[in-house]
């Protein structure tokens, strides 16, 4: 199993992980780092710190940088749709609904016109 090192970079400096951890893949290493970052962030905030400037530098066994995980990425709230975006979507849906109703009325009128025309044609043929 590959070994990964999770170096913790803070405003105070870099704390190197000399031992490392075995992980099945780089993706698993990232998920482990993410979990550790959440725990470290929680502890830091409880102690009055601000972990937003922290990051993990995930390296492979040869010391090559695989990925950087900024703690700010974890601390940021998830993006939510903006009210403006919802308003735009709502206006598009209403416009589409209005157009559908208009087309339905035009089709109904066209069918009625065709029925009338057919009735006249049958009357002339008798």
Structural Rg: 32 Å
Categorize the overall geometry. Answer: elongated
- Terminus-to-terminus distance: 91 Å
Please write the string of helix (H) and strand (E) elements.
EEEHEEHH
Strand content: 15-25%
> How many strands appear in the DSSP assignment?
5
Major β-sheet annotation: 5 strands, antiparallel
Kindly describe this structure.
The termini are far apart. Strands 1, 2, 3, 4 and 5 form a five-stranded antiparallel sheet that branches. The protein is of the alpha+beta class. The chain has three helices and five strands, in the order βββαββαα. It has two domains: 3-75, no CATH class; 81-126.
In short:
It contains 3 helices and 5 strands. The protein is α+β, with helices and mostly antiparallel strands and 126 residues long.
List keywords for this structure.
3 helices, 5-stranded antiparallel beta sheet, single chain, 126 residues, 20% strand, 5 strands, 2 domains, 55% helix, alpha+beta
Helices, strands, pairings?
Layout (H helix, E strand, L loop, with lengths): L2 E8 L2 E3 L5 E2 L3 H21 L8 E6 L4 E6 H5 L7 H43 L1
Antiparallel strand pairs: 1-2, 1-3, 1-4, 4-5
